[in-house]
Write a structure and sequence with these properties.
Largest sheet: none
Structural class: mainly alpha
Radius of gyration: 24 Å
Number of strands: 0
Number of helices: 4
Strand content: under 5%
């Protein structure tokens, strides 16, 4: 095993860089990706024009699909990395939750 000798100045520079890095990380705004995703889902479902009960059921089904695909237990566990994956899963699920409007059958 090699030992490395650092001068006081080199050590001070390394410490300063690490402190700067940690301060930058602390100053980054904290984003609640679970809430952000929830708002996106709810806005899309409300555009579909269903009543509140149907929206809540559909929202629950979408959340379950996302949690299963991402292998998480709660939506609050969404991070910046897996938020985009959650949006992709939601986009794929939209086909199942689109409001379907069927033309009325015309009587002859």
């Amino acid at each position: 095993m090699e030992t490395i000798t650092l001068t006081t100045e080199e050590l001070s520079q390394r410490i300063a860089k690490e402190v700067e890095k940690q301060l930058a990380e602390q100053k980054k705004p904290k984003i609640n990706y679970g809430l952000k995703f929830s708002k996106e889902v709810e806005a899309w479902l409300e555009k579909q024009g269903d009543d509140r009960k149907i929206i809540l059921n559909q929202k629950g089904a979408i959340y379950e699909a996302v949690k299963a695909c991402l292998n998480i237990n709660r939506m609050s566990e969404l991070t910046e990395e897996n938020y985009h994956l959650a949006v992709n899963v939601f986009d794929q699920q939209k086909i199942f939750f689109k409001k379907r409007v069927f033309p009325l059958e015309q009587e002859a």
